[in-house]
Amino acid sequence: MAVSDKENAPVKAEDSKEKLKSAKDKKSKKDALSEMTEEDKKLQDDLNLLVERLSEPNEQLYPPALEMMKTLIRASTTSMTSVPKPLKFMRPHYRRMKEIQEKMSPGPWKKSCADIISVLSMTSDETNDCINYRLKGMAEPISDWGHEYVRHLTMGLAAEWRFADAPRREELLKLVKDIVGYHMKHNAEVEACDLLLEIEQLDMLLNYVEEVDHSRVCMYLLSSAPLTPDPDNMIIIRTAKDIYLKFERRLEAMRCAIMLNSPEVIKSIFSECKDPLMKNQMAILLGRHQSFFDLPGASKEDTDLNSNMSLTKHFHSLAKELDIMEPKTPEGIYKSHLEQTRPFSSALTESNRLNIAASFVNGFVNCGFGVDKILQDTETANKFFYKNREFGIMSSVASLGLIYRWDIDNGLAQVDRFLYANDDYIRAGSLLAVGIISSGVQDPCDPASALLMDHVHSDRPCMRIGSIFGLGLAYANSKREAVIKEEDGGVIFELKKVLADQKPSATSEVKGLAGMSLGFILVGTADHKVAMEMLHLLMDKTEAELTDYNWSFVALGIALIFLGTQEKSEVFVESLRSLPDPFGSMVSTLVDVCAYAGTGNVLKIQRLLHICSEHYESDPDASEKRKSAKDNSSKASADPKKPKTSTETQPKAATSPAKSPIKEAPKPKDPKAKEKVDLSPQQAVAVLGIGLIAMGEDIGSQMAIRMFGHLIRYGEPPIRRAVPLALALLSVSNPQLNLLETLSKFTHDADVDTARNAVFALGIVGAGTNNARLVTMLRQLSTFHYKDPVSLMLVRIAQGLAHLGKGTMTLNPFHSDRQLMCQTAVAAIFATCFSFLDAPTCVLNNHQHYLLYSLVLAVQPRHLVTLIEDELHKGTLKSVNVSVRVGQAVDVVAQAGKPKTITGFQTHTTPVLLAHGERAELATDEYISLTPYLEGLVILKKAPTSAK
């Protein structure tokens, strides 16, 4: 009996719990009933009575009952802070209402009942009922049932669409049109866009957008595009472009066409524009983007603005306004007297590498000002040049190009002094200077082509290098007919001939530069023809020849041709895998990362991280040694009682000479081992690729910085060396405090190459900012690296970059409110970082430091200059001083009303400098701007109200 009592005890306990629960439920119901007001009780009774009426067989009772029920429900579904009373009271009758609707004979009242069930389903767990009964209903205006009902329909619709067949989708499409129309009328544009994006019917949006809300819709679409996978992102941008064109917003449509990287669309938008001032503003935008076209129907003013011919004039007006025209010397930047003195450190002051650094620093600091203290006088300049040797002389002379940047008239006159010198290296440097002056400026007379083309096939390698590299810089991203024509005489035609040249002067270095220059000129064009010729050149090389780092610049040229083209590169990526594997895997990864530059593509970043996670041995025999050691230890652990005798321990030393020939015998395994060793360059490119892909998106950049923290701790040496460069790509000309601290740690790394790359990365991150913290860091580093001339040279160059243009310039490739990515600038920065992956054999060897001039393509003034049409000379523009508010940009995407776009602003008079992350807006009602984004050169016109 005791046992049975124990068994029954839990059952009794459960029964008592259930009784207690039912009693509580009854009590809560009684409490609820007692808490109900008289109005609520009446409403509940009325609804119960209406349901009873619908249950009766007399159909004449249905119309008044359904109408009454609709009226009661509609009166309370306008908001949903809590469940409306009618729905709450009707919830117990939900299944009964469905049964009633089934029994009804076909007709309007059956449909009317379906509408009510559709609304009631919001309180049920049946997911599809809301949509199904809506489709069976009367198709009354969807707005009658309130916003919450529409939201509920929208949620179910996206899930339903995925699994629907074609006929079902036709039905759902009618409902979609109703929902989108409702959202657009009720200031819920974001929900409308999200629904159409979800069901891949975004083109429908064009029919519903009105002029009042089109800017909000397009802003939301364009901010969604970077977060959307390919090819949906292109569809989003194309839709935004069509909406802008619908409302005659041609400049915004032009921005979308630039994002699409479509020359045909750009030309058509420009040619269809009738407003000459708007055409001028479009030409300015294309010039800032460094896209140079033969624009159809362009006036002389349009051509000049697109060619950036007036850029130097406006930059000098800014410099005079800020009173910074006085030239600076390298010593004025270093401020050596502030550095901590070390004994015997003066011995390094006149080293060859520091003289080269002084040339770069002098060029970077006085960039674009047209004046300096070293190269103005020919005699002083010659003394300065001959402090260097060979290619050092070439780099020194080329710095003239930086000083006269954009100023073709004065710059070429200054360089002309050295074009006919007796020394080949001075002449080669002056050829490169011509290319640097002409970069970003497209003079219709083509002086760069006239001066450089004669030396492309010279017998002297240094002359070829100066002219080929100069052409690449001068015509970067030029889509003009004179440059890209295939027949004899075109720049591309001549550079392609260099690739096939068999002369002794056509060294691997010359051909590598020719490949990279072709990449600069055809950047982002996906030109398969030229890329295929470069691929054939690489295929002709043996595995041993491809170990020469110069051939990787030909591969870089292919990658730049496919920069930002996304899926257009897929065929080529696969073709490149046919190259010998250490080189082929690196090149295919290189082209793949360039194709998705700035897209923030998460799947590509995951794949690159997977490549970085692989472990490759630095010693081919290391894995064998580890394996044998593991086997020995496992044997020892298998028999722990067996003592180690002297005969077991000694033979290792005794038999090692005899074993050496046996180690050489299994040679078939060696290639596999080698393969693992050589795949480390692919990992270095993968690390750079993570930075390149994530650079366009803030959240992705923050995640990438965290990933690099893991890679620098646990990665192989090639990965660790690439991490500082990748960090620099993420934050070009934007010295964030956490990034500066991280790179500062890496500058003291035990691995010399990692430390040097980190020093250079500091220069890229702080380029043109005059950041006080960074300047102090670099001064301390110059003391730390005083014994190492190579590291000290990089510290000096980083100091020069930090003072780029005396703090008036930037290398940041993003412009137009950080929405447009200048492919030329990205190509320049990436090419420079890529050359640092093997810095000792490339940039930091005795003569290839001229590759640093690739950065020239990314240099842009960060000014805001306002222009207005000259009333005396119609068709020309003159600068005007107006008040503008400059402050930190605020993200206002999808915010209600008219939120403030800047915060913490100050009022200035143009021209002004804009720092990273700053935005400007007009502080006067006298003028209106032709562009909503006040950056660079902005054309104003008199506001209609103020015009007299």
Automatic annotation (TrEMBL):
RPN1 N-terminal domain ranges (all copies): 47-339
Name used for this protein in its record: 26S proteasome non-ATPase regulatory subunit 2
Keyword list, A-Z: Proteasome, Repeat
Annotated Gene Ontology cellular component terms: nucleus; proteasome regulatory particle, base subcomplex; proteasome storage granule
Entries under InterPro entries matching the protein: 26S_Psome_Rpn1, ARM-like, ARM-type_fold, RPN1_C, RPN1_N
Extent of Basic and acidic residues compositional bias: 619-642, 661-678
Region of interest called Disordered, as start-end residue ranges on this chain: 1-42, 619-678
Taxonomic lineage: Eukaryota, Metazoa, Ecdysozoa, Nematoda, Chromadorea
26S proteasome non-ATPase regulatory subunit RPN1 C-terminal domain residues: 893-944
PANTHER family, per the entry: 26S PROTEASOME NON-ATPASE REGULATORY SUBUNIT, 26S PROTEASOME NON-ATPASE REGULATORY SUBUNIT 2
Gene Ontology molecular-function annotations: enzyme regulator activity
One GO biological process term: regulation of protein catabolic process
